[in-house]
From TrEMBL:
Name assigned to this protein: alcohol dehydrogenase
Pfam family, one: ADH_N
Top-level EC class: oxidoreductase
PANTHER family reported in the protein's UniProt record: ALCOHOL DEHYDROGENASE 1-RELATED, VACUOLAR PROTEIN SORTING-ASSOCIATED PROTEIN 11
Organism: Oenococcus kitaharae DSM 17330
GO CC field: cytoplasm
Enzyme Commission number(s): 1.1.1.1
Family note: Belongs to the zinc-containing alcohol dehydrogenase family.
Cofactor: Zn(2+)
Alphabetical keyword list: Metal-binding, Oxidoreductase, Zinc
């Protein structure tokens, strides 16, 4: 059965999707997610229904699936780097036309009235809601999004290239802003996965010298191929004093290592939504000399608009590894190993 919109777009009543059935290691033989049939969702007031073209796979998806983040919803469909086509409008929705290609990101809704929202820091809103954590995401053929939180996608990006920009790219951009790197300065990047390889491109394009610290041998080669000045082990000493460092790997023990590597007055940014405990932090060794440690919590919509404009201007493109929707588990296992050398993307439908 299908129903027709005013524009004669046929929408099925059921869709294929992955849902989380328990929390546990993604590589466990009894997988924590399963491939199912679900009803196609109905867009609520101010929302649009999106036919998903592609959905990027993010390490945050692993944190949600494996239980590093608290459970917000049972039988959740993960995924929050979504590119798709608007096929139906909910009551009051008017920002997009039927057939428009849009991006559905991690940040899904904020209250709009708290002190954080009113001061341009909506990413800190205590009532914020997230795609693929609080609401069903993009490991599915259809999803919904409040139209005010979706992005128009620059025409020069095909959907596969655009998907990782919606979280990996935007979060990396916010981390770069918080790193406060001086013009022509040096940046250490710890971990070199999806977000890091986009952040490195952006930093290098802006004249920053990038040094990469990662365990994966393929990741080291990949970093050098993108223009990094050096690539070494994650706990190796830096070849130069760093002005700033960004930590993408969810490993708390990298904080002291990065603080040791940055020069006096340097800044260390933790860019992940989850990180393991920090076991050792010595004031004299790690924090003295006016060194700073900060973090990134989600992003604002302004961050997203700024980054997409900058990425299109500087021609920032991810390296893509494509998987069919039915192979999402394989892609997640690859991401969990931490040496994917780029971004994994689920191809869910064809652009038309």
């Amino acid at each position: 059965m299908t129903e027709n919109t005013a524009s004669e777009i046929k929408i099925p009543t059921e869709m294929a999707a992955w849902e989380i059935i328990k929390n546990g290691p993604i590589a466990d033989p009894a997988a924590p997610i399963r491939f199912v049939k679900r009803p196609v969702p109905t867009p609520g007031p101010g929302e649009v229904l999106v036919k998903v073209i592609v959905c990027g796979i993010c390490r945050t998806d692993l944190h949600v699936i494996e239980g590093d983040l608290p459970i917000h919803r049972q039988n959740l469909i993960p995924g929050h780097q979504i590119i798709g086509k608007v096929v139906k409008e909910g009551p009051g929705a008017s920002r997009f036309a039927i057939g428009d290609r849009i991006g559905v990101p991690w940040l899904r809704h904020t209250c709009g009235v708290c002190k954080y929202c009113r001061s341009g820091r909506e990413n800190l809103c205590e009532k914020s809601v997230y795609t693929g954590w609080d609401a069903d995401g993009g490991y599915a053929e259809y999803t919904t999004v409040p139209e005010g939180y979706a992005y128009r996608i620059p025409h020069q990006f095909d959907s596969q290239a655009a998907a990782p920009l919606l979280c990996a790219g935007i979060i990396g951009y916010r981390a770069l802003k918080r790193a406060q790197i001086p013009a022509g300065g040096s940046l250490g990047i710890y971990g070199f996965g999806n977000s890091a390889h986009l952040t490195a491109q952006l930093a290098i394009a802006q004249g920053t010298q990038v040094h990469v610290f990662t365990r994966g041998e393929d990741a080291k080669k990949f970093a050098l191929s993108l223009g990094a000045a050096s690539a070494q082990g994650d706990l190796d000493p830096s070849p130069v004093p760093l002005d700033s460092a960004i930590i993408f790997a969810p490993v708390g023990d990298l904080i002291p290592a990065a603080l040791t590597a940055v020069a006096p007055g340097g800044t260390v940014v933790s860019a992940g939504v989850h990180m393991s405990d920090i076991h050792e932090l010595n004031y004299e060794k790690h924090l003295f000399h006016e060194k700073s440690v900060t973090s990134v919590e989600s992003n604002t919509r302004r961050d997203g608009e700024e980054f997409l404009t900058l990425a299109s201007r500087l021609d920032i493109h991810p390296t893509i590894h494509r998987y069919a929707l039915k192979d999402a588990l394989k892609a997640l296992i690859r991401v969990s190993k931490g040496d994917a050398a780029g971004a994994c993307v689920l191809q869910i439908s064809q652009e038309d």
